[in-house]
Amino acid sequence: MFGSPVQLKTPTQLAHMERAGHHVATMLGHVREAIAPGISTAALDQIAFDFLASVGATPNFLGYHGYPATLCISVNDRVVHGIPDHSTILKDGDVISVDGGCTVTDSDGVAWHGDSAFTVIVGEGTESDRGLVAATEKALWAALAALATGDRLGVVGRAVESVVEDHARETGQRLAIVREYVGHGIGTAMHMPPDVPNFASRERGIRLKPGQAFAIEPILSAGSPANRVLADEWTVVTKDGSNAAHWEHSVAIVKGGIRVLTAHDGGAAGLAPYGISPSPLA
Ligand code: MF3
Ligand code: CO
Ligand code: CO
After folding, report:
1. Of the candidates 181, 46, 63, 48, which has an alpha carbon nearest to the alpha carbon of residue 111?
2. Residue 99 Cβ < 6 Å to ligand 1
3. N or C, where is the chain less crowded by C-beta within 10 Å?
4. Whole-angstrom distance, CA of residue 174 vs CA of residue 165
5. 190 Cβ contact partners less than 8 Å away, ≥ 6 residues apart
6. Cβ density class 99-112: b for 16+ within 10 Å, e for less
7. How many helices and strands (H and E) does the chain possess?
8. 4 strand-pairing partners
9. Residue 147 in contact with residue 156, Cβ under 8 Å?
10. Secondary structure letter of residue 53 according to DSSP
């Protein structure tokens, strides 16, 4: 009932998080532009590492519980936490999820985190994969829009579930929510309380307050959501080999709504279909 307290950030601290978030957005943009048949996931990781170095930001995945790279790159049946390597070479039709983050430091030496992910298909892809990727992205934006008007964190899981249900009704495609991996609080650490589940439950969740920040990150599978971790102790794969998609943004709860910290436009384009505009940090 009484979980760990949720870190509250001042507008100035949220501005540091937004600075980190914009570096993450630019980094992921560079990676996205480089995605093409023939490139290795290690080469994509190098682009991310070099970009962060060029702006003086610090990779926050690298060394996290021993994680060996700047990005997690999860191709096809890899769900999350895929380790970039030289032998995974992208080919037409691959479904590739790229998750990345960084920190920037304030004048007191405190590091502020950003965390974001997207999924794209190399080339056109199958109708099923296009549905999977689009619905997962929609689940993210529906969840963010729900946070803008909602009063409890539980709106996230309900929004993700409704997108999955609407998608099944509209297209006949049944997607499954991967429940083992959840969003999280974010601030002076990448992973902070509370967990942010992508499914509805009887818990309404904590009350939303200005100054909170969360990473919202739905993960959907095109088949069964059952998954396991490979022997590298990181890579999560679906047990049935079906493809998965993962979209993530870091978002701040602010007076009057939300601001997406890992989008250059504060989330304006993604929230527009919901009739919502991002609010200023202060
Ligand atoms: N960024 C991931 C998440 O969205 C966690 C990555 S853990 C790492 O929460 F060790 F791989 F970096
Ligand atoms: Co992430
Ligand atoms: Co995250």
Report:
1. 63
2. yes
3. N
4. 8
5. 60, 61, 64, 101, 113, 115, 184, 215
6. bbbbbbeeeeeebb
7. 5, 15
8. none
9. yes
10. H
Cross-strand partners of 185: 192, 214
pLDDT tens sequence across 121-135: 999 999 999 999 999
Instruction: Report how far residue 29's alpha carbon sits from residue 24's, in angstroms, rounded to the nearest whole number.
Output: 8
Residue 261 CA to residue 263 CA, distance in Å, equals 6
Contact 152, 124 (CB under 8 A): no
89: amino acid identity, one letter? I
> Looking up tokens 């709860």, which residue turns up?
253
Pocket mutation for ligand 1, best pick of 45, 74, 115 (most atoms within 8 Å of C-beta): 115
pTM for the whole structure: 0.98
Residue 55: both structure tokens together: 């702006």
Report d(CA 128, CA 43) in Å as an integer.
28
CA max distance for the chain: 53
* Tokens, residue 72: 């997690």
Look at phi and psi of residue 80 and say left if phi exceeds 0, alpha if psi is from -120 to 50, else beta: beta
Q: Distance of alpha carbon 142 from its chain centroid, rounded?
A: 13
- What's the rounded Cα separation, in Å, for the pair 93 and 90? 9
Cβ(49) to ligand 1 under 6 A? no
Task: Return d(Cα 208, Cα 153) in angstroms, integer.
Answer: 6
pLDDT digits (tens, 9 = 90+) for 45-79: 999 999 999 999 999 999 999 999 999 999 999 99
Residue 217 Cβ < 6 Å to ligand 1: yes
Q: Residue 118's pLDDT is what?
A: 99
